[in-house]
Amino acid sequence: MAAGLWLYFPPAEYVLGGRDPGVYTAEGVQIAQRGSLVTRDALVAAVPAHLRSLVFPRGIVSTLMRFMGFFILDRDAGTVVGQFPHLYPASLALGYGIDGLTGVRRATGLWAILGVLAVYFAGTIYFGGPWRPRRRDCSA
């Protein structure tokens, strides 16, 4: 636990978009600021109708991408939604509500510590733990 606290706190300043951590952070902040998983992107709606198929081409699975990590739901209304599962960004939104961007970064560190604990407890289930009582030999 001490090594995890030393490694993950204070949290890093990685809030750039374009990579998974930055996209999760951007989605969490967007959820906190707008109160919804779906938001209106004014830039998507501002693209002229005759250029939308050029600017927002369909992807491999027939989805429209606004930028990395967000799907376009409606080009006319300009609504977008995050590409990734929403539980983690929602927890980042809670951190944002508590302490702004610092809260988002601290929530990320908290998830890292919870991951370390999960690995520890899984190891104790499979390999035994220090608090488990030893079996006594009752054959005597």
What is the first-to-last residue Cα distance?
42 Å
Q: Number of DSSP strands?
A: 4
Task: Please describe the biggest sheet, giving its number of strands, its sense, and whether it closes into a barrel.
Answer: 4 strands, antiparallel
Helices and strands, in order, run as HHEHHEEEH
- Share of residues in helices: 40-55%
Q: Into which percentage range does the β-strand content fall?
A: 5-15%
Q: Name the structural class.
A: alpha+beta
Spans with pLDDT under 50 lasting ≥5 residues? none
Average pLDDT, rounded to a whole number, is: 80
SS field, number of helical segments: 5
Gross morphology is elongated
* Main sheet strand line-up: 1-4-3-2
In short:
The protein is of the alpha+beta class and 140 residues long. Helix content is 51%, strand content 11%.
